[in-house]
């Protein structure tokens, strides 16, 4: 568990499905709902509970993001974070678009970036946004990500096609910031 000034980041548990299901119950598709074939997946509560019991939780790659009052605000995920691949996809899924402009979102991103570049020693992190995720896109760009391009009409859901944009952030581009962060570590509890 990581306790920050604005957030609490902890490993997700199966019982979190009851709160996290709100992220999956959206009128507009979101990129973190895309499965391996880039189709939108909308699990029910029991299926989400099953997802949260999988092995990824043991390795600490699926996190719940809470505010300081203990309310779940979203989740953060590392996908494919293996040392030999030297990169991973990160997902920061928050319940409301305006939450991406909050200090909580910034704090969670700094934690994910630190885990990726310092702890896991990855060289690159990637993320994705559908064309409708303007708040998430703005958040990524404001945190140093660069667009790798847009795949047109990538996903079909709810009667229309959506474009999918890929983003990258390289370790070398944030080395100075990472070194400054190491001087001010987050509070970790077990």
Structure description:
This protein is 26% helix and 32% strand. The radius of gyration is 16 Å and the shape is globular. It is built from five helices and nine strands. Strands 7-8-6-5-4-3-2-1-9 form a nine-stranded mixed beta sheet, with helices on both faces. The protein has 190 residues and is α+β, with helices and mostly antiparallel strands. The relative contact order is 0.17.
Taking the sheet with the most strands, its summary is:
9 strands, mixed
Helical run tally: 5
Architecture, CATH level 2? 3-Layer(aba) Sandwich
Order of helices and strands: EEHHEEEHEHEEHE
What percent of residues adopt helix (DSSP H or I)?
25-40%
Span between termini: 6 Å
What is the CATH homology-level superfamily? Gcn5-related N-acetyltransferase (GNAT)
Let me know the number of strands: 9
Radius of gyration: 16 Å
Strand order of the largest sheet: 7-8-6-5-4-3-2-1-9
Into how many domains do the coordinates divide? 1
């Amino acid at each position: 568990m990581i306790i920050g000034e604005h957030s609490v980041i902890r490993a997700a548990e199966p019982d979190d499905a009851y709160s996290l299901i709100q992220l999956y119950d959206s009128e507009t598709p979101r990129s973190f709902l895309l499965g391996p074939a880039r189709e939108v997946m909308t699990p029910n509560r029991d299926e989400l509970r099953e997802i949260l019991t999988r092995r990824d939780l043991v390795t600490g790659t699926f996190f719940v993001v809470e505010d300081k009052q203990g309310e779940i605000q979203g989740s953060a995920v590392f996908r494919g974070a293996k040392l030999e691949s030297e990169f991973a996809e990160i997902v920061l899924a928050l319940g409301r678009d305006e939450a991406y402009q909050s200090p909580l979102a910034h704090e969670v991103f700094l934690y994910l970036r630190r885990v990726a570049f310092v702890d896991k020693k990855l060289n690159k992190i990637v993320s994705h946004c559908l064309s409708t995720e303007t708040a998430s896109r703005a958040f990524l760009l404001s945190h140093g990500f660069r667009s790798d391009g847009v795949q047109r009409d990538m996903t079909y859901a709810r009667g229309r096609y959506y474009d999918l944009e890929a983003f990258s952030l390289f370790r070398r581009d944030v080395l100075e910031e990472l070194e400054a962060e190491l001087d001010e570590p987050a509070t970790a509890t077990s």
